Amino acid sequence: MTDDLHLTAIERDLIRHEFMTRFDNATNVIEGFNIKRWATGPKKGQPKISGAVQGLMDRGLLTIIDQGHWPKAVFTARGLQALKRMAAQPRALDPERYQLFLDQLALIPEV
To answer: What are the beta bridge partners of residue 36?
Structure first.
């Protein structure tokens, strides 16, 4: 049986990209991150789901909230557990680049 809280390399890269501190600002882990929409074609207007996002959704770690202009990818309670597990690995998130994200995770109570 595989551990469905284990994040793949592609999923870890997605998380690092979305939650990296930029201009002294970081995406709020509770609010999630923006997902683009299809601009043309048969899926026009629907959320554009990457393979990494789909994998997280398939395992119940992430959900899409489609309200407003940009759909949001929001981590479920189990997804937050997976993020905390990732953050506990010393080499997973460089504190210099991810300190705001790590601080946000530390404020989330254990489930």
So the answer is: none
Q: Which residue type occupies 82?
A: A
Question: Is 3 within the bounds of a domain?
Answer: no
Residues in the chain: 111
Q: What is the pLDDT of residues 36-62, one digit of tens each?
A: 999 999 999 999 999 999 999 999 999
**pTM score, two decimals?**
0.86
Domains of the chain: total:
1
Amino acid in position 3: D
Is 31 part of any domain? yes
Domain that holds residue 18: 9-107
- Which residue type occupies 80? L
Of the CA atoms within 13 Å of residue 53, those in its CB half-sphere come to: 18
